[in-house]
Amino acid sequence: MPSANAASVGVSSMLRNRVYTALALAAAAAMTIFWAPFWLFAVIFGVACCFAAYEWAALAGWQAQGERLYYVASLVVLMLLSLAQQAYWFEIVVLSCFVWLGGFLSILVHPRTSAIYQSRWFIASLGWILLLCAWFSLLTLFQIDNGRLWVFWLFVLTTATDVGAFFLGRAFGQHALAPKISPGKTREGAGGGLMLALIVCVPLLFLSGALDFYASIGLTIMMSIVSIFGDLFESLLKRVSGIKDSGALLPGHGGLLDRIDSIIAVVPFLVWSVA
User: Which of 86, 95, 150, 192 would staple 164 via disulfide (CB 3.0–4.6 Å)?
Assistant: First the structure.
């Protein structure tokens, strides 16, 4: 009985920390999206990508702090170089979508292709590409018509998908979504995440006039599915590398990468769809 009580207290504490952290991140993201000028928006989310890169380096097998900082510095150099190539951003975003599609395919056929993810330099290069493209996809999205709304919608969609999957999965989950990759994720949870995304995100798009009703439904479904696969892809990398959490920066969530993996996956597809 004492062990059961201790476990219950531990779960409650984890859920409380998860909620508090999510609320704090949501408030910080909303203030940045709606009030920050473009340059500050770029800096803040650039810093977030650098923290994610520090954690990604561990997935590539770079455990020493010096190696991980070198990896972050390399990403910063690529970011600075990309600022001089803005004319090619959209084409690179489209190419990154095909990289993501390859990653999603590897989820479906795992573990037959998992050997490729054991290559340190392959994972490192993949991180540079996906994090860099996520950063300037966000900048591109921010600058289109109703850009702040679209960035806000992106964060709402990924959060709703994650929250719905987490709580509906805990309440009703019985069938594993990808048992060889992440046994804790369930089909019921994925369905709950998709339903919550539809309930929250479709009205936001439709009532704002960004899209008509049916287009809002279609885009929400597609981006929510990408969000789920983005989360699974990070789980695949962690399983191959033997890492449980990408970090411990965010109480209740793990690392920053654990929190933004879906955003990194969705944003290039969203730019491709609406830009």
Answer: 192
What is the pTM for the complete model shown?
0.90
Residue 111, preceding peptide bond in cis (omega within 30° of 0): yes
How far is residue 93 from each of residues 90, 216, 250, 264, measured CA to CA in Å? 5, 22, 28, 12
Question: What is the length of the chain?
Answer: 275
Residues 6+ apart with CB under 8 A from 217: 198, 202
β-bridge mates for residue 186, sequence order:
176
> How crowded is residue 170: how many other Cβ atoms within 10 Å of its Cβ?
15
Q: What does the alpha-carbon distance between residue 143 and residue 149 come to, in Å, rounded to a whole number? A: 11
